[in-house]
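[step 3/7] inverse_fold.run input=structure_tokens len=137
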């Protein structure tokens, strides 16, 4: 079976989707293909999101927000949106999830940690669904 591709989408691709992509890469390794994008990407990743992930030993500082493309959605098996709503193109036959998460933009590290931790919980559950339990993890 080919490895599943997961696309994380939020408006700016600077906080939530970058943290989610960072966790999925770190926790699933090469068992899952990870993409992230934004409907209106910022110029750089939220430095507080970078700091929050660094506390977990995950470096997302080198990532760059990317614009959401129809191709990225088409290539993905699972599309997880975080507050971008109607900006995300819908293709039949794909799995869509909308994760209700607070936007870390403009928040301090104390407010971003719980968002980060919630993302980690959801990523761990997602890996459990996408990667069969028989696989060494």
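[step 3/7] decode complete -> sequence:
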């Amino acid at each position: 079976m080919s490895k599943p591709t997961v696309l994380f989408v939020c408006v700016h691709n600077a906080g939530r989707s970058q943290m989610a992509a960072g966790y999925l890469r770190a926790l699933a390794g090469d068992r899952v293909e990870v993409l992230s994008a934004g409907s209106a990407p910022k110029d750089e990743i939220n430095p507080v999101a970078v700091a929050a992930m660094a506390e977990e030993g995950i470096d997302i500082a080198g990532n760059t927000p990317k614009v959401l493309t129809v191709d990225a959605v088409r290539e993905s098996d699972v599309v997880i949106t975080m507050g971008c709503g109607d900006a995300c193109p819908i293709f039949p036959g794909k799995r869509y999830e909308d994760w209700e998460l607070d936007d870390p933009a403009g928040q301090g590290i104390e407010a971003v940690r719980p968002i980060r931790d919630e993302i980690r919980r959801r990523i761990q559950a997602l890996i459990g669904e996408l990667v069969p339990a028989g696989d060494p993890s």
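[step 4/7] annotate
The chain has a mean pLDDT of 91.
DSSP finds four helices and four strands in the chain.
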